[in-house]
Design goal:
The chain is of the alpha+beta class. It has one domain (44-213): 3-Layer(aba) Sandwich (NADH Oxidase), CATH 3.40.109. Helix content is 38%, strand content 17%. It contains 8 helices and 8 strands, in the order E-E-H-H-E-H-H-H-E-E-E-H-E-H-E-H. The protein has helices at 24-38, 54-64, 84-105, 108-114, 125-128, 154-171, 185-190, 222-225, and strands at 6-9, 12-15, 76-81, 131-138, 140-142, 148-150, 175-176, 197-206. The protein has a 4-stranded antiparallel sheet with strand order 3-4-8-7. Strands 1-2 form a two-stranded antiparallel sheet. A two-stranded antiparallel ribbon has the order 5-6. Helix 2 (54-64) crosses helix 6. The chain is globular, with a radius of gyration of 21 Å.
Amino acid sequence: MSPQEQVFINGFKHLLYQPVKIGAEQSLTASMNFFNFMNQRRSVRTFSDQSVDKKIIETIIKTAGTAPSGAHKQPWTFCAIADQKIKKEIRIAAELEEKKSYESRMSASWLKDLAPLGTDMHKPFLEIAPWLIVVFKRAYELDEDKTALNNYYVNESVGIACGLLISAIHHAGLVTLTHTPSPMKFLHDILERPENERPFLLLPVGYPQEPSYVPELYRKDLDEMAVFYE
């Protein structure tokens, strides 16, 4: 490597960044194509039991791992579950929490807002989908002596990684659903995760059942979600 391709900052090696160079017109086309593709993404609750190659799951997780994170601590763990016994255990525990939520924890306005989505306390997709990906946030790190080491902007970092994960799932021709049974401690217990990890999000991953139906939803227009200062 030539000296021009690396420098040292604060004693640490920095490599020359190699940007993807495309023209302004190509950039606009690429951005529009990606928007149109992602605008087809939907949360799907009816899954096929068709198998999904483990290598696909590995690759989408690696894509999620490209996310930026506070001080590059990468405070995430992705648990990918295909074992049917574990999936059944997760479903049973999740539905117990969901039953409590639908019957007593959720307010009337919350239930009203959920009604158009067609959700209820029953979560068969947790067993039917060939894979479950449970995302854990690492509240702190543990060294070999079990000493706690700081992580930074953990929720923000893991949230960004989950966004990339969902995009990668869609890009692979698969579907998913963001599932957040609350509380989610049962995921920590079932999967026997270490004390520094907290469950953040559960995503069933697979192919959609055919036919599958999704609610007719409205997405905000640009002028409803963006403000430009020029």
